[in-house]
Write a structure and sequence with these properties.
Length: about 120
């Protein structure tokens, strides 16, 4: 998945990851890119995948239908979009390898215009 696959307004950043050797696509210069750099330097992180699909499209369409809510659509073509998380990290902790999904959200701007972030995780061994 690339930044062209996700409807977004704002800054798009593409950087070559030195851990993965892949081109990473981010939809936010500050939120996701800053977190990417932090994870590149973490000794526990062995892979970084951005805009990672949470579930197949047919499953999220089914869930939305069962809950009676509108599934997100692309504003241009009105087709359903694939639900993603901002980053999926592969982490080595002692002898185990885990996948951790991250989402990043801006909470507020302080008086000096620095941004405060909230990072949520979900683990799967």
């Amino acid at each position: 998945m690339t930044v062209r696959d996700v409807p977004s307004i704002g800054i798009v950043t593409r950087i070559l990851g030195w851990k993965s050797g892949r081109l990473h696509h981010y939809l936010s210069k500050h939120f996701e890119l800053t977190h990417h750099y932090q994870m590149e330097w973490s000794e526990q992180v062995i892979d970084i995948r951005e805009q990672f699909p949470l579930l197949p499209l047919d499953k999220t369409l089914y869930i939305a239908q069962k809950l009676g809510i509108k599934h997100p659509t692309d504003p241009k073509n009105k087709l359903p979009i694939i639900m993603t998380t901002d980053m999926l990290l592969t982490i080595k902790q002692e002898e185990s390898i885990k996948s951790i999904a991250y989402f990043l959200r801006k909470l507020q701007e302080n008086k000096m215009n620095y941004l405060v972030y909230q990072v949520g995780t979900a683990c799967k061994s």
